[in-house]
Structures are given as structure tokens and as C-alpha cells.
Amino acid sequence: ETWRNIIASGALPIAITDCMNFGNPEKPEIMGQFVECIRGMGEACSKLNYPVISGNVSFYNETNGEGIYPTPVIGALGLLEEATRHANIPFDAPGDIVVLLGTKEIRGEAGALSGSEYLECVYGIVAGQPMIDMALEAAVQRTCRRLVRESLIKSAHDLSDGGLAVALAESCIAGNLGFRGEFSVSGRWDAALFGEYQSRVIVSASPSTLPGIQSICRDEGVPYVKIGKCGGGALV
């Protein structure tokens, strides 16, 4: 998430610091959470060239003997060499196109709801096994950063909590500008709109820059799909 946020601004991620918050490590399942979290972070940071330069650990975080969710808190540092070449979340102008990087179609697979805000908020369930393809992640973020640096896009927003629908809503609210979706869904609509598929970014741009966006996506081997246009006063 920190990697994506820095990239979406147009900056280069340099390093992270972490604060690892867990329950009672004397319980095998809690220590297991801690060990696997460290392994996952180490693997991801190694593949993304994203070094961990400092951190701390907080154990025994419990209420009535029940441990908190395993919670790694990450602080990150990035470098933006040219401050004028940056992107932000808000949609910018009516008629701008919105492109979703990281997929060639809007899928609605039940597995995308694993560990999602939707699954917990609507059904009260915390379950599933979210997956990530680190090679695709790196390629999508390289693409996004190139698009920002070459001034081909006006906004960039990574998809995280809440999935596609929430990311679109946040960009609409931040820009005080509506959006009309123009896409079909393969599978379940709830999973398509609120599933938390990894390695995806929504970008908005003038229609005239679409060829440049397509060229960079092809160069990096990143799938993409045009999903609609900005305009109006509502998210449709």
C-alpha cells in the first residue's frame, strides 16, 4: 500500500520503517502470524527493491485475552525529483477518460472478496486467502510512474480497501466531479465492485493521451481496460 501510494504520486519509493503490532507471542498461533508477516514483508521488499531501514515491535496487544489482528504499520519514504510532475487522487475535468491498469477486464470472482472490507462490513466475516503476483505488481507500478513522469495522466489512485467502487468514489469526491462507468463484468457484480484484487490503479487522462498510455502499457507488458469517463455530478 505504501509502495503504491508513493508510485501513484509519481515519486520513487526509497525505503520503509515498520511498527509490528501483535498479540501474545507466547501463543504459537500469534508467533506464527509474526514470523509469516516478516517473511512476506521481506520477500516483497526484496522484489521491489524497497529496503527496511528501521522498525520496532509491540507484543501482548490484547483485550480480555483476545489478540488484535496482526498489524504491521508501515511508514515509507519516496523521492519526487520534479515537484511539478506529480499526480493526485482527484478526477480533473469532464470528458477525461478513466483507465484501470493491471487487468484487461472487470472480473467478479468470489476469491477477490478474501480479507476485504466488503466481506467484513456486509457479512461480518474475516476470512479468505488474498493473493498477489509480485511481478505484475512491479510492472503496474513502473507503468504508473512512467505515465506520471511523462505527463500522460492527470490523476492516479491505487485500489485498496473497498476495491474499484470505493476508489472511484474517492476520486469523484476529491475532485467534486462525477463518473459514468462504461464496462461489463465477468462474474459477480459485488466481487467486481468491492473485491480487493491486487496490483490495480485507476488513472484519468485527456482522450488525446490514450495512445501514449497504451504504448507504455504495451512496453511494460501491463494489461489495461478503459472503464468510463469523468463528468456530471454523480457516480454512475
Determine the fraction of residues in helical runs and give it as a percent range. 25-40%
Strand percentage: 25-35%
Number of strands: 12
Query: Strand arrangement, largest sheet?
Result: 8-11-6-12-9
- Write the H/E string, N to C: HEHEEEEEEHHEHEEHEHE
Global geometry: globular
Short summary of the structure?
This protein is of the alpha+beta class and 236 residues long. Helix content is 35%, strand content 25%. It has 7 helices and 12 strands.
Describe the structure.
- It is globular, with a radius of gyration of 19 Å.
- The chain is α+β, with helices and mostly antiparallel strands and 236 residues long.
- The longest helix has 21 residues.
- The protein has a 5-stranded antiparallel β-sheet with strand order 8-11-6-12-9. Strands 2-1-5 form a 3-stranded mixed β-sheet.
- The chain is 35% helix and 25% strand.
What layout of secondary structure does this protein have?
Blueprint: H1 2-9, E1 12-21, H2 28-48, E2 52-58, E3 62-63, E4 66-67, E5 71-79, E6 97-101, E7 106-108, H3 117-123, H4 134-149, E8 155-158, H5 163-175, E9 179-181, E10 185-187, H6 189-194, E11 201-205, H7 210-220, E12 224-230
Parallel strand pairs: 1-2, 7-10
Antiparallel strand pairs: 1-5, 3-4, 6-11, 6-12, 8-11, 9-12
Record keyword descriptors for this entry:
single chain, 236 residues, alpha+beta, five-stranded antiparallel beta sheet, 7 helices, 12 strands
